[in-house]
Amino acid sequence: MVTNPPKLKVALVDDERLQNLKNAFERQYGGAPLFYACAPGRVNLIVNNSGTIQLANVNPLYNHITVSCSEEIVIDRANPKWYYYFLCGVKGIQEKFGITRLPGMSCVVDGNIPPSSGLSSSSALVCCAGLVTMEGNQQSLSKVDLAEICAKCECYIGTEGGGMDQSISFLAEKGTAKLIEFEPLRATDVRLPDGAMFVISNCCVEMNKAACSHFNSRVVECRIATKMLAKAKGLNQNGFLKLAEVPREMNASQEEMLALVDEVLHPEPYSREEICKALGITSQQFSTELLSANTQHVTHFKLHQRAKHVYGEAARVLRFKSVCDCAPTESIQLLGDLMNQSHASCRDLYECSCPELDQLVDICLKAGALGSRLTGAGWGGCAVSMVPSDKVPSFLQAVREAYYLPDPRRAAMEKQSLFVSKPGGGAAIYLEK
Ligand code: ADP
Ligand code: MG
Predict the structure, then answer these.
(1) Which domains does the chain have, with CATH numbers?
(2) Which residues line ligand 1 (CB under 6 A)?
(3) Which residues 6+ apart lie within 8 Å of 109 measured at CB?
(4) pLDDT one-digit tens code per residue, 235-265
């Protein structure tokens, strides 16, 4: 069966949230917006000749700002304010089309993704800004191009993320999960089992990825492990930056990579000196070529554990898809087991969980989940649990009683922190009919 891919431009459907956004826009700028974009945070915009980019947010926590179009966009990594994420998206499109002078834009942002909680509020904002800037400059791009541009430009904020978040933000389709693969970027449908639902629960610990070095320190460890593995296999280490590139080059399976990690890397943390010696580089090269700006202080690197996690996780992703392709509903516990292994690996090998998340995952399993794991970067934020559909009400009640109600701060956040999620549609521009 051939189905049409989802369109990037769709007709607007009026709802209360949109009406509120429109009102906020009119109050702010005294005119109606030209179009809306959703990714799935939401932005509306008017292109104008003010020579400035004006950004407002319906949430008073995020202040309004004006940036001049005659100056180069500068993103201060040391101080990741909300509008820098927006400007990342603007800069990405500006560079793609070589736009020397951007036209003015007035935008109002309304996001409903809990920030710093692993659900990628940051990428929603970057992708939405990219989409708005493309449309505002009368340009057109495919969803894959947009995803690649936005993955690259979110790095301007300082976090060296891969492209998962931006890819799914553009390539998502209602009703189906997606396997995301790179080189070339593609998203393949994964049929989720009937009879189970995915429930999100936020442990209510926020982790702002750009404002600390946890995230990038793992990126750096993976980069160093990549070079060590490449060198051990006689490959030119200079060409390799990501762990995924080594098996691609060697045509090796994830399982073969796991064995190679055991052979080449030791579990004891590596010092800078040991790495420099092994790679034949100077301490200066180590700092400038391998470390990021915010990880210059790190002295020890757990290469074995991080590489084991990454290849193990890649193997689990492929196994998850193959179970879904064969008999998802009959083998549902296998899927749950993979999620549980994934959490254990995040906790013990990648060390990106936190006590609250571990406690929440435990509670979710006791409450009837078949599998539960942290989602997103970790160090706080959300867990995702697979729960048999008929057990969802009792699951929600049990998690509520064990995790949220005993703590007044969590109890106050429960409504936006504990909910069932289904695969939804990707980013789009909404035009008035
Ligand atoms: P996440 O896991 O949600 O992607 P990040 O730490 O990567 O978390 O990014 C969170 C940051 O994104 C926030 O600190 C804020 O600067 C920005 N952000 C998220 N949602 C919004 C929003 N609705 N409006 C403005 N900025 C937002
Ligand atoms: Mg993020």
Answers:
(1) 9-186+425-431 (3.30.230.10), 213-353 (1.20.1440.340)
(2) 41, 57, 59, 62, 82, 85, 109, 111, 115-122, 125, 208-209, 376, 381
(3) 41, 42, 43, 55, 56, 57, 58, 62, 86, 125, 128
(4) 988 889 999 999 999 999 999 999 999 999 9
